[in-house]
Design a protein that fits this description.
The complex is a heterodimer of chains A (154) and B (184). By secondary structure, chain A is mainly α. Chain A contains seven helices and no strands. Chain A is globular and about 45 Å long. Classes of the chains: A mainly alpha (154), B alpha/beta (184).
Chain lengths: 154, 184
């Protein structure tokens, strides 16, 4: 059985993750929409915070919420994904080369790929974030990457 | 990537305005040094001297719930500023004394009636709370007053007129009584 992890006050959670979540949204959405999405992400987190049962993997949980907010923003955009502005400069070139394609993946695969290769979360953390197992997270990420490579070769 | 002060401020204000917080806290500058001020949706619940904001979040979370965020508390800040500038004698703030035991609450309600610029004694306050022999217990209630300054425990002195004690330190009690014109 896993050890219970104390949930920190929201102030600490916000303080610990706000910078990286803003950076994530910046890359997913561009500068213009990142700030509104940032606010929406942490308001959603705050709404759900009282219902958390443990403090494990809160970082992954924050990314999961941010990813959902980003998906909602993409859905609201009228323009097709291919016409989105180029992503900001990235210090992770391998992922940056694929990032512009990631928007076309099924939601779970996209989340797994983004969290694994864009944000370096472990499969266990990604599994926790997506509400699935570590193995399922690994499979989602690898099938997402295969799909991306096929598109890239085309 | 660091969050700009403007975006940070905007999020904190939005969180408070949306009513999503169990408790909001802020640090307010005063002539007595920085004050920690905290409020729930029901009202002001804590004022503390010499705040340690890191510990404050933990302490508040244990008492009021995990949704703790530093956020602007405009009304308490404004009224405290006015009080320290000598422009306010009565606070017009809702209080949340939900976590205070019944006897303590009774004493604090009597304390709230002690007017600006006047003092009373622990014994007299005990009498007014219908516990005439509980002067010492009243002293303990003063010591644990969750909202000093607004609930004026600095106006309670010993039967000989000695200041006796103060949760924030006796110098601060003197300073407050000087501000109110009780001490020269």
């Amino acid at each position: 059985m896993m050890e219970a992890v104390t949930i920190p006050p929201f102030e600490r959670f916000y303080d610990a993750h706000n910078g990286e979540i803003l950076a994530f949204l910046h890359r997913r959405l561009g500068r213009a929409e990142a700030e509104d999405a940032f606010q929406e992400t942490f308001l959603r987190a705050l709404r759900a915070y009282g219902r958390l049962e443990h403090g494990r993997d809160l970082r992954a949980w924050a990314y999961k919420i941010a990813e959902r907010v980003a998906i909602d923003v993409h859905r609201r955009r009228a323009a097709p994904a291919a016409e989105e502005p180029a992503a900001a400069v990235d210090d992770r070139p391998a992922y940056a080369q694929l990032e512009h394609l990631a928007g076309q993946l099924p939601a779970t695969e996209r989340a797994a790929v983004v969290l694994r290769y864009g944000y370096d979360l472990s499969y266990a953390q990604i599994g926790a974030a997506l509400g699935s197992s570590e193995d399922a997270a690994r499979q989602a990420a690898s099938s997402g990457v295969r799909r991306l490579r096929r598109k890239e070769l085309r | 990537m660091s969050v700009s002060p403007e975006l940070d401020r905007r999020f904190r204000a939005a969180a408070a305005a949306a009513g999503l917080l169990d408790v909001a806290y802020d640090v307010v500058d005063s002539p007595l040094g920085p004050l920690l001020v905290a409020a729930t949706s029901r009202g002001l619940c804590r004022i503390a001297f010499d705040p340690e904001p890191d510990e404050a979040a933990e302490t508040l979370a244990r008492r009021y719930g995990l949704r703790v965020l530093r956020a602007p508390l405009d009304a308490p800040r404004r009224e405290l500023d006015e009080y320290f500038e000598g422009r306010r004698q009565v606070f017009d703030l809702d209080l949340d004394l939900g976590s205070v035991a019944p006897f303590n609450r009774r004493v604090l309600e009597e304390l709230a009636r002690v007017p600006y610029g006047q003092t009373t004694t622990y014994g007299r306050l005990a009498e007014r709370a219908d516990r005439p022999r509980a002067a010492r217990a009243v002293g303990m209630v003063m010591n644990r007053n969750p909202v000093p300054i607004v609930l004026p425990c600095h106006r309670v002195v010993g039967s000989t007129g000695k200041l006796v004690g103060y949760g924030g330190g006796i110098e601060r009690k003197e300073q407050l009584l000087r501000l109110e014109g009780v001490l020269a």
